[in-house]
Specification:
Shape: elongated
Order of helices and strands: HEHEEEEHEEH
Strand order of the largest sheet: 3-2-7-6
Number of domains: 1
Largest sheet: 4 strands, antiparallel
Length: 131
Amino acid sequence: MHESLRQPNWDIDREIGSQAEVWISDIRKAFANGTVEVKRDTRAMRTGNLYVEYECRRGGVFKPSGIATTRADAWCFVVIKDALAIVIETEKLKNICSETGIRKAEETDGSHPTKGYLVPMRYLFAPTQRA
């Protein structure tokens, strides 16, 4: 008789799964209540970075915007159209930006130039392992 070396702890596994379900439920509520900022980042998969705006030029002057002024509970970055999105709590994203984001020069695509952080996506998945 072959015995597996792994002995699952069903009570712990169930608790971890339940916590994940609660978190997903909270995300669904945030989407339903309109408290998620949704961005489409067409370059993220190619560059490995998410662009997180913090200023926008209007009337010739840069003013705080994006992550600096958001009231959203979470941000959702669509990185592959109709296939892949990354959802992150706003406070966690703010912390990652302040700790690891690299300020980027003006972004001129779109109707208003912006300034933003380039956040390496790997920091979203292992934020304690910064290079």
